Amino acid sequence: MIPLLILGLIQENPGAHGYELLSLMEQRHYTYIVNFTKGSFYYNIQKLEEKGYIQRIHRVESVRETQNYVITESGRQEFAKLMDSYGSKTEYINLPFYGPMLFFDDYPQADLVRILERQIGQTKERIMLLEQSIEHNTDVSRYFKLMMENSLAHHKVNLEWFEKLVKELCE
Predict the structure, then answer these.
(1) Residue 53 and residue 55: Cα distance in Å, rounded?
(2) CA torsion angle for 103, 113, 120, 40 (degrees, to 10)?
(3) Three-state DSSP class for residue 63
(4) The whole model's pTM is what?
């Protein structure tokens, strides 16, 4: 998924340097889509360049040299392939929370409530961040905004479910 995001960003921003692309991924909250680090980002940049999907252009800005990138024709073909591949996938929603939940019957009730309250706090934080992004991020595409709205709806449903579980445990 990271190569798809990088290729798409380079298509949108030809000649951008690595730091610009990484900043865009962070500003646009692409972590909602895939977990990435600075290291995984630059590793994928390197692999895309080795495969000939992107090309590095050296520029001197003021007193420093930057590594800027453009997408190649084979990169556009790879982008189209990745768009089709990822765009055609549907997967089950899997929360890491589901694993521990399998053993809730054999776990102390007070500890379950503590776990659920942590989930509630984290979910409220995600909801707040998504609502802020939807309201204030005007430089995102219409489709990314729709995706964030969908994610927001899922988090709201999860919040309701976590709160219901706490209520049932406390009855």
Answers:
(1) 7
(2) -50
(3) coil
(4) 0.72
| Domain presence at residue 92 | no
At 61, which helix (H) or strand (E)?
Answer: strand 54-61
Q: Give per-residue pLDDT as tens, 31-51.
A: 877 888 999 999 999 999 999
Please give the tally of structural domains in the chain: 2
Q: Are residues 41 and 76 in the same domain?
A: yes
Same domain? 80 vs 135: no
| Average of per-residue pLDDT across 48-56 | 96
116, part of any domain: yes
Are 47 and 72 members of one domain? yes
Out of 31-40, 58-67, 71-80, 158-167, least confident range: 58-67
Q: Which two tokens stand for residue 159?
A: 């919040």
pLDDT(78) > 80: yes
Burial 14-50 (b: 16+ CB within 10 A, else e): eebbbebbbebbeebbbebbeebeeeebeebbeebbe
> How many residues belong to the chain?
171
